[in-house]
Amino acid sequence: MTPITIESIAQQLAEITAKSVGKQPSDMLRDVSLREQGVDSLGFGELVFEVEDTFGVEIANQKEVFADMETINAIALYIFNQQAQK
Q1: CA-CA distance, 85 to 68, in Å (whole number)?
Q2: In 3D, which of 21, 25, 51, 23 has the Cα closest to residue 35?
Q3: What is the DSSP letter of 60?
């Protein structure tokens, strides 16, 4: 089994977000706000559900959690840390 890395999580997030905004995963910039890349509030809500389902993490207060994590890299680090605590 391949170990889960921040990079692999970021790649999956790029794929998920690209699909929601009609772009290619390679077009998603990992250090740029998702809002700047076309993810609106509805898309952001869908992203939260997709993250929970895909990575098996629970995001109880999504506004608080994602307020400071608007980039793919920041969200990937959060997911990685949540999975490490399991």
Answers
A1: 20
A2: 21
A3: S
| pLDDT at residue 49, rounded to an integer | 87
Domains within the chain, CATH numbers bracketed: 6-84 (1.10.1200.10)
CA dist 25 and 18 (Å) reads 5
User: DSSP state, 45?
Assistant: H
More confident residue, 86 or 79: 79
pTM (two decimals): 0.86
Confidence (pLDDT) at 64 = 62
Comparing C-alpha atoms, which of 46, 13, 49 is closest to residue 30?
13
Per residue in 9-36, pLDDT (tens digit) is: 999 999 999 998 999 999 999 999 998 9
